[in-house]
Amino acid sequence: MKAAVWHGREDIRIEDKALSPLKDNEVTIRVAWAGICGSDLHEFEEGPVFIPTQARDGLTGGLAPLTMGHEFSGVVEAVGKNVTEYKVGDRVSVNPTITHGKRSEYDDIYDGFSFIGLHCDGGFADFVNVPESAVYHLPDHLSLETAALIEPTAVAVQAVKEGGLRFGDTVAVFGAGPIGLVTIAAAKAGGATKVIALDLSDSRLEMAKAMGATHIINSGKEDAVTAVRNIVPRGVDVAFEVAGVQQTVEQSINVTRPRGTMVIISIFAAPITWHPMQLINTGVKVTSSIAYSPSSFQETIDLMASGQLDVTPIVTKKIAFDEIVNEGFETLVSDKTQAKILVTLSGEQ
Protein backbone atom coordinates (compact mmCIF):
# COMPACT_ATOMS: atom_id res chain seq x y z
CA MET A 1 0.00 0.00 0.00
CA LYS A 2 0.99 3.66 -0.33
CA ALA A 3 1.79 5.64 2.82
CA ALA A 4 3.11 9.14 3.60
CA VAL A 5 6.00 8.46 5.97
CA TRP A 6 7.71 11.03 8.21
CA HIS A 7 11.48 10.58 8.24
CA GLY A 8 12.46 13.96 9.67
CA ARG A 9 11.98 17.70 9.39
CA GLU A 10 10.83 18.61 5.86
CA ASP A 11 11.20 14.95 4.92
CA ILE A 12 7.89 13.21 4.26
CA ARG A 13 7.98 10.51 1.59
CA ILE A 14 5.26 8.57 -0.19
CA GLU A 15 6.39 4.97 0.01
CA ASP A 16 5.18 1.44 -0.56
CA LYS A 17 4.72 0.05 2.91
CA ALA A 18 3.30 -3.18 4.26
CA LEU A 19 0.33 -2.93 6.61
CA SER A 20 1.21 -4.13 10.10
CA PRO A 21 -0.33 -7.48 11.15
CA LEU A 22 -3.91 -7.10 12.43
CA LYS A 23 -4.17 -7.64 16.19
CA ASP A 24 -7.15 -9.39 17.76
CA ASN A 25 -8.55 -6.10 19.16
CA GLU A 26 -7.95 -4.06 16.03
CA VAL A 27 -9.91 -2.92 13.00
CA THR A 28 -8.45 -2.43 9.53
CA ILE A 29 -9.78 0.77 7.96
CA ARG A 30 -9.72 1.57 4.26
CA VAL A 31 -9.02 5.28 4.48
CA ALA A 32 -11.39 7.47 2.46
CA TRP A 33 -10.37 11.03 3.37
CA ALA A 34 -7.71 12.58 5.58
CA GLY A 35 -6.99 16.12 6.69
CA ILE A 36 -3.62 17.78 7.19
CA CYS A 37 -3.53 19.17 10.72
CA GLY A 38 -1.55 22.06 12.19
CA SER A 39 0.31 19.57 14.38
CA ASP A 40 1.27 17.66 11.22
CA LEU A 41 2.60 20.93 9.86
CA HIS A 42 4.63 21.49 13.04
CA GLU A 43 6.26 18.09 12.53
CA PHE A 44 7.02 18.96 8.91
CA GLU A 45 8.44 22.41 9.64
CA GLU A 46 9.94 22.05 13.12
CA GLY A 47 9.77 18.40 14.13
CA PRO A 48 10.11 16.23 15.92
CA VAL A 49 7.58 17.72 18.33
CA PHE A 50 5.50 14.65 19.21
CA ILE A 51 6.94 11.96 16.94
CA PRO A 52 9.20 9.55 18.87
CA THR A 53 12.68 9.37 17.35
CA GLN A 54 14.91 8.06 20.14
CA ALA A 55 12.82 5.38 21.83
CA ARG A 56 9.52 3.63 21.17
CA ASP A 57 6.42 5.37 22.46
CA GLY A 58 5.29 3.85 25.75
CA LEU A 59 1.62 3.55 24.78
CA THR A 60 1.76 2.71 21.07
CA GLY A 61 5.21 1.23 20.56
CA GLY A 62 5.69 3.59 17.60
CA LEU A 63 9.06 4.89 16.45
CA ALA A 64 10.04 7.06 13.48
CA PRO A 65 9.97 6.68 10.56
CA LEU A 66 6.19 6.35 10.77
CA THR A 67 3.06 7.06 8.74
CA MET A 68 1.44 10.37 9.64
CA GLY A 69 -2.24 11.37 9.64
CA HIS A 70 -4.69 11.56 12.55
CA GLU A 71 -7.71 13.28 10.97
CA PHE A 72 -9.33 10.61 8.85
CA SER A 73 -12.42 8.60 8.04
CA GLY A 74 -12.98 5.37 6.18
CA VAL A 75 -14.64 2.01 5.82
CA VAL A 76 -13.95 -1.12 7.84
CA GLU A 77 -11.97 -3.54 5.70
CA ALA A 78 -11.30 -6.30 8.28
CA VAL A 79 -11.74 -6.95 12.00
CA GLY A 80 -9.71 -8.84 14.59
CA LYS A 81 -11.22 -11.91 16.19
CA ASN A 82 -12.03 -10.10 19.46
CA VAL A 83 -13.78 -7.14 17.82
CA THR A 84 -17.50 -7.10 18.63
CA GLU A 85 -18.90 -3.66 17.70
CA TYR A 86 -17.84 -3.35 14.06
CA LYS A 87 -18.11 -5.35 10.86
CA VAL A 88 -16.69 -5.15 7.36
CA GLY A 89 -18.34 -2.31 5.43
CA ASP A 90 -19.10 -0.07 8.41
CA ARG A 91 -18.43 3.63 7.80
CA VAL A 92 -16.35 5.01 10.65
CA SER A 93 -14.37 7.87 12.15
CA VAL A 94 -11.32 7.43 14.35
CA ASN A 95 -10.50 9.09 17.66
CA PRO A 96 -6.70 9.05 17.40
CA THR A 97 -5.95 9.52 21.10
CA ILE A 98 -4.61 6.39 22.79
CA THR A 99 -4.76 6.52 26.60
CA HIS A 100 -4.22 4.16 29.52
CA GLY A 101 -7.97 3.83 29.94
CA LYS A 102 -10.83 2.34 27.96
CA ARG A 103 -13.55 4.33 26.26
CA SER A 104 -16.34 2.69 28.22
CA GLU A 105 -14.87 3.44 31.63
CA TYR A 106 -12.39 6.28 31.28
CA ASP A 107 -13.24 9.74 30.00
CA ASP A 108 -10.05 11.72 30.23
CA ILE A 109 -6.79 12.00 28.27
CA TYR A 110 -4.38 13.46 30.79
CA ASP A 111 -3.26 10.26 32.49
CA GLY A 112 -0.88 9.80 29.60
CA PHE A 113 -1.86 9.87 25.94
CA SER A 114 -0.44 9.30 22.48
CA PHE A 115 -1.80 9.93 18.99
CA ILE A 116 -2.38 7.59 16.09
CA GLY A 117 -0.53 9.28 13.23
CA LEU A 118 2.03 10.98 15.48
CA HIS A 119 3.14 8.27 17.91
CA CYS A 120 2.36 5.32 15.62
CA ASP A 121 1.24 4.71 12.04
CA GLY A 122 -1.79 6.76 11.01
CA GLY A 123 -4.22 7.58 8.26
CA PHE A 124 -2.04 8.99 5.46
CA ALA A 125 -2.17 5.55 3.87
CA ASP A 126 -4.47 3.31 1.89
CA PHE A 127 -5.13 1.22 5.02
CA VAL A 128 -4.45 1.53 8.73
CA ASN A 129 -4.99 -0.76 11.74
CA VAL A 130 -6.42 0.91 14.88
CA PRO A 131 -7.78 -0.38 18.20
CA GLU A 132 -11.51 -1.05 18.25
CA SER A 133 -11.79 1.42 21.16
CA ALA A 134 -10.68 4.23 18.82
CA VAL A 135 -13.42 3.61 16.23
CA TYR A 136 -16.80 5.38 16.06
CA HIS A 137 -19.81 4.59 13.88
CA LEU A 138 -20.94 7.33 11.50
CA PRO A 139 -24.59 8.24 10.91
CA ASP A 140 -25.70 7.32 7.39
CA HIS A 141 -26.25 10.93 6.32
CA LEU A 142 -22.81 12.17 7.46
CA SER A 143 -20.44 11.78 4.52
CA LEU A 144 -16.98 10.31 4.89
CA GLU A 145 -15.57 13.50 3.42
CA THR A 146 -17.18 15.63 6.13
CA ALA A 147 -16.25 13.02 8.74
CA ALA A 148 -12.57 13.75 8.09
CA LEU A 149 -13.26 17.04 9.90
CA ILE A 150 -14.57 15.42 13.09
CA GLU A 151 -11.20 15.23 14.84
CA PRO A 152 -10.21 18.92 14.59
CA THR A 153 -13.78 19.94 15.40
CA ALA A 154 -13.67 17.78 18.54
CA VAL A 155 -10.61 19.78 19.62
CA ALA A 156 -12.74 22.93 19.45
CA VAL A 157 -15.73 21.36 21.20
CA GLN A 158 -13.51 20.28 24.08
CA ALA A 159 -11.86 23.72 24.25
CA VAL A 160 -15.26 25.41 24.49
CA LYS A 161 -16.11 23.10 27.37
CA GLU A 162 -12.79 23.85 29.09
CA GLY A 163 -13.56 27.55 28.81
CA GLY A 164 -16.86 27.11 30.64
CA LEU A 165 -18.69 28.94 27.84
CA ARG A 166 -22.33 29.73 28.62
CA PHE A 167 -25.21 31.05 26.53
CA GLY A 168 -24.86 34.79 26.09
CA ASP A 169 -21.11 34.89 26.64
CA THR A 170 -18.69 36.94 24.56
CA VAL A 171 -15.62 35.35 22.98
CA ALA A 172 -12.34 36.34 21.33
CA VAL A 173 -10.40 33.88 19.17
CA PHE A 174 -6.76 34.73 18.47
CA GLY A 175 -5.73 32.95 15.27
CA ALA A 176 -8.00 32.07 12.35
CA GLY A 177 -6.20 28.97 11.19
CA PRO A 178 -8.12 25.69 10.94
CA ILE A 179 -8.47 25.14 14.71
CA GLY A 180 -9.30 28.79 15.29
CA LEU A 181 -11.98 28.61 12.61
CA VAL A 182 -13.67 25.53 14.06
CA THR A 183 -13.41 27.10 17.53
CA ILE A 184 -15.40 30.04 16.19
CA ALA A 185 -18.07 27.66 14.91
CA ALA A 186 -18.12 25.71 18.19
CA ALA A 187 -18.41 28.89 20.25
CA LYS A 188 -21.38 30.05 18.18
CA ALA A 189 -23.00 26.64 18.51
CA GLY A 190 -22.34 26.83 22.25
CA GLY A 191 -24.34 30.05 22.63
CA ALA A 192 -21.81 32.88 22.32
CA THR A 193 -23.46 36.14 21.27
CA LYS A 194 -20.31 37.95 20.15
CA VAL A 195 -17.40 36.07 18.60
CA ILE A 196 -14.42 38.27 17.77
CA ALA A 197 -11.83 36.75 15.41
CA LEU A 198 -8.29 38.14 15.25
CA ASP A 199 -5.64 37.30 12.68
CA LEU A 200 -3.02 38.88 10.44
CA SER A 201 -4.59 37.54 7.25
CA ASP A 202 -7.61 39.28 5.69
CA SER A 203 -8.48 36.14 3.74
CA ARG A 204 -8.57 34.05 6.89
CA LEU A 205 -10.67 36.70 8.62
CA GLU A 206 -13.17 36.43 5.78
CA MET A 207 -13.29 32.68 6.43
CA ALA A 208 -13.85 33.48 10.11
CA LYS A 209 -16.97 35.45 9.15
CA ALA A 210 -18.20 32.45 7.16
CA MET A 211 -17.72 30.28 10.26
CA GLY A 212 -19.80 32.60 12.43
CA ALA A 213 -17.54 35.38 13.70
CA THR A 214 -19.59 38.49 14.47
CA HIS A 215 -16.54 40.79 14.42
CA ILE A 216 -13.15 40.53 12.72
CA ILE A 217 -9.92 42.37 13.57
CA ASN A 218 -6.70 42.38 11.59
CA SER A 219 -4.24 42.57 14.48
CA GLY A 220 -1.46 43.58 12.12
CA LYS A 221 -3.31 46.76 11.24
CA GLU A 222 -4.75 47.82 14.60
CA ASP A 223 -4.05 47.21 18.25
CA ALA A 224 -5.74 43.94 19.15
CA VAL A 225 -6.51 44.71 22.80
CA THR A 226 -7.90 48.18 22.10
CA ALA A 227 -10.02 46.88 19.21
CA VAL A 228 -11.55 44.09 21.31
CA ARG A 229 -12.18 46.43 24.24
CA ASN A 230 -13.95 48.83 21.89
CA ILE A 231 -16.42 46.01 21.12
CA VAL A 232 -16.65 44.57 24.66
CA PRO A 233 -15.41 47.30 27.06
CA ARG A 234 -15.38 45.08 30.15
CA GLY A 235 -13.53 42.30 28.33
CA VAL A 236 -14.73 39.04 26.83
CA ASP A 237 -15.92 36.18 28.99
CA VAL A 238 -13.68 33.62 27.25
CA ALA A 239 -10.63 34.08 25.04
CA PHE A 240 -9.09 31.30 22.98
CA GLU A 241 -5.39 31.46 22.08
CA VAL A 242 -4.90 29.52 18.85
CA ALA A 243 -1.87 31.27 17.33
CA GLY A 244 0.92 29.87 19.46
CA VAL A 245 3.09 32.97 19.98
CA GLN A 246 3.94 34.98 23.08
CA GLN A 247 2.23 38.16 21.90
CA THR A 248 -1.15 36.49 21.41
CA VAL A 249 -0.90 34.73 24.78
CA GLU A 250 -0.51 38.12 26.45
CA GLN A 251 -3.20 39.73 24.31
CA SER A 252 -5.64 36.91 25.03
CA ILE A 253 -5.30 37.53 28.75
CA ASN A 254 -5.54 41.30 28.33
CA VAL A 255 -8.87 41.14 26.48
CA THR A 256 -10.47 38.83 29.05
CA ARG A 257 -12.70 40.29 31.75
CA PRO A 258 -11.74 39.95 35.43
CA ARG A 259 -12.25 36.34 36.51
CA GLY A 260 -12.91 35.33 32.93
CA THR A 261 -11.12 32.42 31.27
CA MET A 262 -8.38 32.18 28.68
CA VAL A 263 -7.93 28.81 26.95
CA ILE A 264 -4.68 27.89 25.20
CA ILE A 265 -5.30 25.47 22.32
CA SER A 266 -2.20 26.06 20.22
CA ILE A 267 0.97 23.97 20.11
CA PHE A 268 4.25 25.68 20.98
CA ALA A 269 7.39 24.27 19.39
CA ALA A 270 9.59 26.43 21.65
CA PRO A 271 9.25 28.07 25.09
CA ILE A 272 7.92 31.58 25.57
CA THR A 273 8.59 34.16 28.31
CA TRP A 274 5.62 35.43 30.23
CA HIS A 275 5.02 37.41 33.47
CA PRO A 276 2.42 35.86 35.83
CA MET A 277 1.57 39.26 37.35
CA GLN A 278 -0.61 39.71 34.28
CA LEU A 279 -2.94 37.14 35.84
CA ILE A 280 -2.53 38.13 39.45
CA ASN A 281 -3.70 41.65 38.67
CA THR A 282 -6.88 40.50 36.90
CA GLY A 283 -8.00 37.17 38.32
CA VAL A 284 -8.19 35.77 34.80
CA LYS A 285 -8.07 31.98 34.81
CA VAL A 286 -5.83 30.25 32.27
CA THR A 287 -6.42 26.69 31.15
CA SER A 288 -5.43 24.59 28.17
CA SER A 289 -6.76 21.89 25.91
CA ILE A 290 -5.01 19.67 23.39
CA ALA A 291 -7.52 17.01 22.46
CA TYR A 292 -10.90 15.73 23.71
CA SER A 293 -12.55 13.15 25.89
CA PRO A 294 -14.29 10.19 24.23
CA SER A 295 -17.65 11.70 25.12
CA SER A 296 -16.70 15.01 23.47
CA PHE A 297 -15.66 13.12 20.33
CA GLN A 298 -19.05 11.41 20.17
CA GLU A 299 -20.86 14.68 20.88
CA THR A 300 -18.98 16.26 17.99
CA ILE A 301 -20.19 13.52 15.65
CA ASP A 302 -23.75 14.11 16.86
CA LEU A 303 -23.50 17.90 16.50
CA MET A 304 -22.12 17.64 12.97
CA ALA A 305 -24.66 15.01 11.94
CA SER A 306 -27.57 17.12 13.24
CA GLY A 307 -26.38 20.22 11.37
CA GLN A 308 -25.91 22.19 14.57
CA LEU A 309 -22.19 22.44 13.88
CA ASP A 310 -21.20 22.96 10.24
CA VAL A 311 -17.46 23.30 9.72
CA THR A 312 -17.28 22.39 6.02
CA PRO A 313 -16.45 26.00 4.97
CA ILE A 314 -12.92 25.52 6.35
CA VAL A 315 -12.07 23.16 3.47
CA THR A 316 -10.16 25.24 0.94
CA LYS A 317 -8.59 22.51 -1.17
CA LYS A 318 -8.85 18.80 -1.96
CA ILE A 319 -5.82 17.01 -3.33
CA ALA A 320 -4.78 13.59 -4.57
CA PHE A 321 -2.67 11.45 -2.24
CA ASP A 322 0.37 11.70 -4.52
CA GLU A 323 0.23 15.50 -4.08
CA ILE A 324 0.33 15.45 -0.27
CA VAL A 325 3.81 16.95 0.07
CA ASN A 326 3.88 19.58 -2.70
CA GLU A 327 0.20 20.57 -2.81
CA GLY A 328 -0.47 19.78 0.84
CA PHE A 329 2.31 20.45 3.33
CA GLU A 330 4.32 22.90 1.22
CA THR A 331 1.22 24.81 0.19
CA LEU A 332 0.08 25.20 3.79
CA VAL A 333 3.51 26.57 4.70
CA SER A 334 3.56 29.16 1.90
CA ASP A 335 -0.08 30.06 1.23
CA LYS A 336 -1.97 31.54 4.17
CA THR A 337 -5.20 31.70 2.16
CA GLN A 338 -5.44 27.95 2.73
CA ALA A 339 -7.16 26.59 5.82
CA LYS A 340 -8.00 22.87 5.71
CA ILE A 341 -6.63 20.71 2.92
CA LEU A 342 -8.26 17.31 2.52
CA VAL A 343 -6.35 14.41 1.01
CA THR A 344 -8.32 11.98 -1.14
CA LEU A 345 -7.51 8.33 -0.45
CA SER A 346 -10.32 6.01 -1.62
CA GLY A 347 -12.59 9.05 -2.01
CA GLU A 348 -15.67 7.13 -0.84
CA GLN A 349 -18.58 9.09 0.57
TrEMBL record:
GO molecular function, one term: zinc ion binding
One Pfam match: ADH_N
Residue ranges of domain Enoyl reductase (ER) in the record: 8-343
Entry keywords, A to Z: Metal-binding, NAD, Oxidoreductase, Zinc
Cofactor dependency: Zn(2+)
SUPFAM superfamilies: GroES-like, NAD(P)-binding Rossmann-fold domains
InterPro entries in UniProt: ADH-like_C, ADH-like_N, ADH_Zn_CS, ER, GroES-like_sf, NAD(P)-bd_dom_sf, Zn_alcohol_dh
Superkingdom as given in the UniProt entry: Bacteria
Similarity comment: family membership: Belongs to the zinc-containing alcohol dehydrogenase family.
The protein, known as: (R,R)-butanediol dehydrogenase
Organism: Wohlfahrtiimonas chitiniclastica SH04
